[in-house]
Amino acid sequence: MNWISNYVRPKINSLFSRREVPENLWTKCDNCGQMLFHRELSNNLNVCTNCNHHMPITPRDRFTALFDGGIFTEVAVPRPIDDPLKFRDQKKYPDRLKAAQKQTGEQEAMLVAEGEMGRTPIVAAAQDFSFMAGSMGMYVGNAIIAAAERAVELKRPLILFSAAGGARMQEGILSLMQMPRTTVAVQMLKEAGLPYIVVLTHPTTGGVTASYAMLGDVHIAEPNALICFAGPRVIEQTIRETLPEGFQRAEYLLDHGMLDRVTSRTEMRDELITITRMLMQQPPPVIADLPAPAEIESGAEVADLDPPSEPEKA
User: Fold this and answer.
1) Which domain holds residue 35?
2) Is the CB of residue 168 less than 8 Å from the CB of residue 175?
3) For a tag site, which of 43, 118, 174, 294 has the least CB within 10 Å?
4) Residue 74: inside a domain, yes or no?
5) Is omega for the bond preceding 203 within 30 degrees of 0, making it cis?
6) How confident is the model at residue 16 (pLDDT cuts 50, 70, 90)?
7) Number of domains the chain contains
8) What is the tens place of the pLDDT at every residue in 288-304?
9) Which of 64, 62, 245 is nearest to 161 (CA)?
10) Digit-coded pLDDT (tens) for 184-206
11) What is the pTM of this model?
């Protein structure tokens, strides 16, 4: 037995060998290929610091950045029947739901919360594209109705972040019925005189675009977000023509009057605060959390604060 080769050398190699770096420390940008440190990317709200490409972000992370101090309260959403049509393709529908719940840690494709944004009380709802492509099922319809009812009850504006591949095929006609249901919910806000602001993120397609995603008082989109009913590939195959560059992207829709703003995610909170307070007829937000200066009432105090200037020499 060669003790140097079999014992000493492996021992030395184990002491000086490089430690393996965890795979989740770095993320590669889908657009430019830049390797981004996970903490830097998270602090920038999953926006590439090199090319400004907007990567997916979960509703919880979005709400943490949106609400003051990252504090919000979830709004309860009625739970529908899990598998009303007993649907099965390659997998049973309940199995797909369980897999999506395990992957995302969420119960469904939409999260509803309430809290303050820049000292402005709001109700917010956000879709999670990683949960079965954010598809619109009965739960999503119930979530939007619950958000609208809570906003009307508290007299607060509703801000909705859309991200969906369309209706959920596993629920068939019951999924399509959510389009008129959510339209009624939006009408409740309009009758109550409350603002409804929609932030369209990548991608927002199908029946979601054909219903609550395009019924807002103000429509804002993240840069380069795909917003459409039928996708560009389907349209090209149908009309057999090449579509313009950037067709159905946020900037294209802004140029053609479909959107009001295209705003980066890192600037979205300030933009929403300004627009929300304007629509609620509230004074502009105060920069920094400082008490307002005391008003000066007497002329004596004015004289103390502003001493008279020296008389000009002739």
Assistant:
1) 23-55
2) yes
3) 294
4) yes
5) yes
6) low
7) 2
8) 554 555 554 444 444 44
9) 62
10) 999 999 999 999 999 999 999 99
11) 0.83
